[in-house]
Write a structure and sequence with these properties.
10 helices, 54% helix, globular
Length: 201
């Protein structure tokens, strides 16, 4: 009897099953497969700095995103709500691909960044944002991201201030730097979802 090869079994699985029941195809993601509950759940469980931070809990990407949104608003008072939402979601792809530290991203190369940008564009579309932010908004979010990295580095990751300035730049003198306290996973997830809902009402 002729055996038909099972090619489907040999194909590598390229989708991630989410707790919501969605299956996100990592090679061809669509907005229909993106749920904010999955994003919040995942980001609250991904540690910044590969977990090399002080405190009883990791400092999660969910907390980092909350901080970046807050800093963007402080840097530009009156910023549009949609742009604040983009700041909150700036690292949303990490809910499925994790938080690779910058040196490793550089080693992986441009294909990784292309994939990250493609998934972020899909997430933006899912929540009513432009796939790509205007250059001035992208620059603002990047600046807030670097300030957040400076604060995290000096308060949690063991960097000296001078060393952190060399890598991330000097935060504005007028900035009211918050004290960073890593939160339990459930609390970080709740706060992220709460902020998302506030920005999308």
């Amino acid at each position: 009897m002729l055996r038909v090869p099972n090619t489907a079994a040999k194909s590598p699985r390229a989708w991630q099953r989410m707790l919501s029941g969605r299956r996100l195809d990592l090679l061809d993601p669509t907005p229909l497969d993106v749920e904010i509950a999955d994003i919040a759940h995942g980001l609250a469980r991904v540690a910044r700095w590969n977990g090399q931070t002080k405190g009883a809990y990791p400092f999660s990407v969910a907390q980092h995103c909350l901080l970046v949104e807050r800093l963007a608003q402080e840097l530009r008072p009156g910023i549009a709500r949609s742009h604040r939402l983009a700041a909150l979601l700036h690292d949303a792809p990490e809910y499925v691909i994790g938080d690779l530290i910058s040196p490793f991203k550089a080693a992986v190369g441009i294909d990784y960044k292309d994939f990250e940008h493609k998934l972020l564009a899909v997430i933006h579309i899912r929540f009513g944002l432009s796939p790509r932010m205007p250059n001035e908004v992208a620059a603002l979010i990047k600046r807030a991201d670097r300030i957040s990295a400076f604060l995290e580095a000096t308060q949690l990751a063991g960097f000296e201030v001078v060393e952190a300035r060399n890598f991330f730049g000097r935060p504005p003198a007028r900035l009211r730097a918050p004290k960073l306290v890593p939160l339990p996973t459930g609390e970080a997830e709740r706060l992220f979802l709460e902020r998302f809902r506030h920005l999308t009402v």
